[in-house]
């Protein structure tokens, strides 16, 4: 069974309530229609009820099964403002400012997760990653024992022998511009756990670089080497290795020449990039040139599931991210 078929099946078996913070936007409305028709989740749309219904009608969509919450008129707004004030008052938050901020759709939606009214949140079709992360980190915060939020893509490459028959996870492709060695190690461990719980993979984690096992020197290589050592020390039960060039990470013949004896080289299904530039460029290259399906970015590390979208996403992309978010909620990822 293809990964997304499995994810859809799990989402349907235990429906979760997911909030779409950009409820007036066209692709979100199209996704809502598809999600409800397929029974993937219960949906809450944030926005003006009048605009949401008018836009859906103009698009010929049926969103009658969705709940619509307007931050400017909702009965929840006053309570959300008070709770947000209590969460942030030591940081200088005033009640007046909190009342204004929770009327922002992203802050309102994040408070809906915090209070347990919804199980997960998806946004990003018309907002930046920073717009999403800011309220998430202020309100929901990171999961216990997790130091950093990161983002990964599930890459499904057609007719491909690499990874698990073309299935690989790429991280971090969305959140951290230049992670430290310690942060890179944390990203590797978190992504390995996600690969197991969400994708049912036996993770083989490659710490990518332009060097393989000391073939090059310098500050950039040393960071990946240090990150690998930290990750291995923290989790001796996981197969994590590096530093590895991409070809050594995924191609058996190259691995035998460049990294003989590595438990990961030639078999990697989780690729950890040294920084956001390489990660973001890398996933887009594979998506465009190899015609891969890129699902995400999926955030990991939040106490409750909050997920970003690419502003170039399609409605089908939103449907898949919502399904992923629902399964994250089921599994506590």
Which characteristics define this entry?
333 residues, alpha/beta, Rossmann fold, 6-stranded mixed beta sheet, 5-stranded parallel beta sheet, 13 helices
Fold and architecture overview:
This protein has 13 helices and eleven strands. It has 333 residues and is α/β, with parallel strands linked by helices. The protein folds into two domains: 169 residues, 3-Layer(aba) Sandwich (Rossmann fold), CATH 3.40.50.10950; 140 residues, Rossmann fold. Helix 2 packs across helix 13. The longest helix has 19 residues. Pfam families: PTA_PTB. Pathway: Metabolic intermediate biosynthesis; acetyl-CoA biosynthesis; acetyl-CoA from acetate: step 2/2. Its EC number is 2.3.1.8.
* Major beta sheet summary: 6 strands, mixed
Helix content: 40-55%
> Which runs of at least 5 residues are low in confidence (pLDDT < 50)?
none
Percent range for β-strand residues: 15-25%
Overall number of strands? 11
Q: Residue-averaged pLDDT, rounded?
A: 95
Helix and strand pattern:
HEHEHEHHHEHEEHEHEHHEHEEH
C-alpha Rg, in Å?
21 Å
CATH-defined topology of the largest domain: Rossmann fold
Give the domain tally.
Answer: 2
GO molecular function, one term: phosphate acetyltransferase activity
Pfam families: PTA_PTB
InterPro entries: P_Ac_Bu_trans, P_AcTrfase, P_AcTrfase_dom1, P_AcTrfase_dom2, Phos_Acetyltrans/Butyryltrans, PTA_PTB
Enzyme class: transferase
Which helices and strands appear, and what pairs or packs with what?
Blueprint lengths: L2 H11 L3 E4 L5 H13 L3 E5 L2 H10 L8 E3 L7 H12 L6 H7 L3 H10 L5 E3 L6 H12 L9 E7 L10 E5 L9 H19 L4 E5 L10 H16 L4 E6 L1 H5 L1 H7 L11 E3 L3 H14 L3 E8 L5 E2 L7 H17 L2
Parallel strand pairs: 1-2, 1-4, 2-3, 4-11, 6-9, 7-8, 7-9
Antiparallel strand pairs: 5-6, 5-10
Helix pairs in contact: 1-13, 2-13, 4-5, 6-7, 8-9
Pathway: Metabolic intermediate biosynthesis; acetyl-CoA biosynthesis; acetyl-CoA from acetate: step 2/2
Catalytic activity: acetyl-CoA + phosphate = acetyl phosphate + CoA
Keywords: Acyltransferase, Transferase
């Amino acid at each position: 069974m293809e990964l997304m078929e499995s994810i859809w099946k799990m989402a349907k078996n235990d429906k979760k309530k997911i909030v779409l913070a950009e409820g007036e936007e066209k692709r979100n409305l199209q996704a809502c229609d598809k999600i409800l028709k397929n029974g993937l989740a219960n949906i809450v749309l944030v926005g003006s009820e009048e605009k949401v219904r008018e836009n859906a009608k103009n698009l010929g969509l049926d969103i009658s099964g969705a709940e619509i919450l307007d931050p400017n008129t909702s009965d929840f707004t006053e309570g959300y403002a008070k709770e947000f004030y209590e969460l942030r008052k030591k940081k200088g938050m005033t009640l007046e400012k909190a009342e204004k901020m929770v009327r922002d759709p992203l802050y309102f939606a994040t408070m809906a997760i915090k209070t347990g009214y919804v199980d997960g949140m998806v946004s990003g079709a018309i907002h930046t990653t920073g717009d999403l992360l800011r309220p998430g980190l202020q309100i929901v915060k990171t999961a216990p024992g997790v130091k950093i939020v990161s983002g990964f893509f599930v890459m499904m490459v057609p007719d491909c022998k690499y990874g698990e028959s073309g299935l690989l996870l790429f991280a971090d492709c969305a959140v951290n511009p230049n992670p430290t060695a310690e942060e890179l190690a944390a990203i590797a461990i978190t992504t390995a756990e996600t690969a197991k719980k969400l994708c049912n993979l036996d993770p083989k984690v490659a710490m990518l670089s332009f060097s393989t096992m000391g073939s090059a020197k310098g500050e950039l290589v040393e960071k990946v080497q240090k990150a690998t050592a930290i990750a291995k020390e923290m989790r001796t039960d996981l197969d994590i290795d590096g530093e590895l060039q991409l070809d050594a990470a995924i191609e058996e013949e190259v691995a035998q020449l460049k990294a003989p004896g590595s438990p990961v080289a030639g078999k990697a299904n989780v690729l950890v990039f040294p920084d956001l530039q390489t990660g973001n460029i890398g996933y887009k290259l594979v998506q465009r040139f190899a015609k891969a399906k890129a699902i995400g970015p999926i955030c990991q590390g939040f106490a409750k599931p909050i997920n970003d979208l690419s502003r170039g996403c399609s409605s089908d992309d939103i449907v898949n991210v919502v399904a992923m978010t629902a399964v994250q909620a089921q599994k506590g990822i």
